[in-house]
Design brief:
CATH topology of the largest domain: Nucleotidyltransferase, domain 5
Number of helices: 12
CATH class of the largest domain: Alpha Beta
CATH superfamily of the largest domain: ATPase, nucleotide binding domain
Strand content: 15-25%
Strand order of the largest sheet: 3-2-1-4-5
Helix content: 40-55%
Length: 310
């Protein structure tokens, strides 16, 4: 039996799907994160996570016809390490946005907009041409991502304390959540090693809670995020698709758990004739498996893959 492998290697977990030649998922494996490889310790954790994930599938020693692995942070420095532990005739080692797109659209043309800690939009048309918008990191991009939401909240708090911004409940809630005494303390706390970007981003759901209580400042930040993410989708559409062409746009990531962001995004995206906002068909590990089949020149529908992989 010919086997195919799809792997989603993320900041919080690693998921692997093994499929047979018919597209049927025959094994699922899970392990811890595998996104950092810059240090010796990071490389050890990467190899350990990959080994544990393959062990969990029961196919650690199998040789795959094709394997696609999508990694958070991109494939740089992971290619050689991956080939140490995965045995395959053909490899595609890529970023997690590519596999998220393939999973969300079940391998069909479309657009995915990802808003987790950061943000990016990626699309592919019927000719196989791809285009992206965003994804330039927390310093120069990632607008509408969770870290950016908390950054905008802190800026609003600073403006209030300096007397040139409106009052907002964000101040009290963020100070309470972090134990900071004032906005200046909070700002310096966020610059410490204690608060990684992911930890700062984890505070983003507070904005949704406060906005639902009627706080206009929090509501404005969330609505602006929805508009920005819709703009990313529009930029990708303009590069790949004809006016009026039917395009499926899938929102993915924790920021879209906010009803305000999700609805604002949907409303603005669907103002463009032909766009349809749709839930992802599958998760990124299934997307990686779809790309493995594509790499091998096989066209088949995925069967038995979980939509929620973690």
């Amino acid at each position: 039996m010919k086997l195919f492998l799809g792997v989603d290697g993320g900041q919080s977990s690693t998921t692997a799907l093994v499929g047979d030649e018919t597209g049927r998922v025959i094994a699922v494996g899970r392990a811890g994160p595998c996104n950092h490889v810059r240090t010796a310790d990071g490389r050890h954790r990467f190899l350990s996570a990959m080994a544990a994930c393959l062990d969990d599938t029961g196919h650690r020693e199998s040789r795959f016809e094709a394997a696609c692995l999508g990694f958070s942070g991109g494939p740089k420095d992971k290619d050689a390490l991956t080939r140490e532990i995965v045995h395959a005739e053909k490899f595609l080692i890529t970023n997690d946005a590519t596999t998220a797109l393939a999973g969300a659209t079940a391998g069909e043309p479309g657009i995915v907009v990802i808003a987790g800690t950061g943000s990016i939009a990626l699309g592919r048309n019927a000719e196989g041409t791809t285009a992206r918008a965003g994804g330039w990191g927390y310093a120069f991009g990632d607008e509408g991502g969770a870290f950016d939401l908390v950054r905008q909240a802190l800026r609003a708090i600073l403006r209030f304390e300096e007397g040139w911004g409106p009052k907002t409940a964000l101040r009290g809630r963020l100070l309470q959540a972090t134990g900071a005494g004032d906005a200046d303390d909070l700002l310096h706390l966020f610059y410490t090693d204690e608060y990684s970007r992911a930890r700062v981003a984890s505070l983003a759901p507070l904005l949704d809670e406060i906005a639902l209580e009627g706080d206009a400042v929090a509501g404005d930040i969330l609505n602006a995020a929805g508009q920005t993410l819709a703009t990313l989708a529009g930029a990708v559409r303009g590069q790949l698709f004809q006016p009026g062409e039917l395009v499926s746009v899938s929102p993915i990531g924790g920021v879209f758990q906010s009803g305000m962001v999700r609805e604002r995004f949907r409303l603005l995206v669907e103002l463009d004739d032909g766009n349809r906002v749709a839930a992802p068909a599958f998760g990124p590990a299934a997307g990686a498996l779809i790309e493995a089949y594509r790499l091998a020149g096989i066209s088949c529908a995925i069967q038995g893959a979980p939509v929620q992989e973690t």
